[in-house]
Amino acid sequence: MPIDKTVASAEEAVADIPDGATLAVGGFGLSGNPMALIRAIEARGITGLKVVSNNCGVDDWGLGLLLRGGQIDKMTSSYVGENKEFERRYLTGELELELTPQGTLAEKLRAGGSGIGAFYTRAGVGTQVQEGGLPQRYNADGTVAQASQPKPTAVFDVNGEPQEFVLEEAITTDFSLVHALRGDRHGNLVFNKAARQFSPPAAMAGRICIAQVEELVEPGEIDPDAVHLPGVFVHRIIEVGSDIEKRIERRTVTETAGSEES
């Protein structure tokens, strides 16, 4: 692997992603969405994608752009509540959905990137997550075409008490896409605030990780203690600048005294 991992453009960075690829995509809500990479994939018209991400953006932003174009066949997510097109495609059988508890999803990605095949967790025990039956794909008439299957469980001693745990398999993907605040040419990354939530484990899970960064610096300019993701996990990096558009799902404004006069 070359030491200098920079590429010239988002288009070049995603040029070898094929139809039907699996993708792990960082971001939390609309925070930290790798928009330049998503738009490059949208422009290429790649279809049949199977995407693992916290959510699927909104109708006109984030992964919602790929969903709108019919480019995503399956989503593995923990939250899907802000996208009407997602709801429509899921309920009409156009989209497969694997709902996963949020912490479990993050750990499945981290485990995959760490070479761990599976792990046990208490999250989901005694629910449809463990027992099966969650609708994953519907028929056009609204009946369930595919449901989740039961997962193995085991009992372990925790503080002197037997407790049941469910076995969750790790996730690895063909590619991963992340957005970082800063990165160097070796691929070391620093994420900003909420974008740090899912981006490091998503990056780790991809066999090929592609990162877009707002600021590209030279090796040594990032304090090693400040690195959130080591460059060993990153294969390609592009600089997108700090003036890119950033969105939030909902803006809540509280009026203060004198706000009308101002």
TrEMBL record:
Keyword match NAD: no
GO molecular function, one term: CoA-transferase activity
UniProt keyword list: Transferase
A Pfam family matched in the record: CoA_trans
NCBIfam families per record: pcaI_scoA_fam
PANTHER family, A to Z: ACETATE COA-TRANSFERASE SUBUNIT ALPHA, KETOACID-COENZYME A TRANSFERASE
Family: Belongs to the 3-oxoacid CoA-transferase subunit A family.
Protein name: Succinyl-CoA--3-ketoacid-CoA transferase
The species this protein was found in: Agrococcus baldri
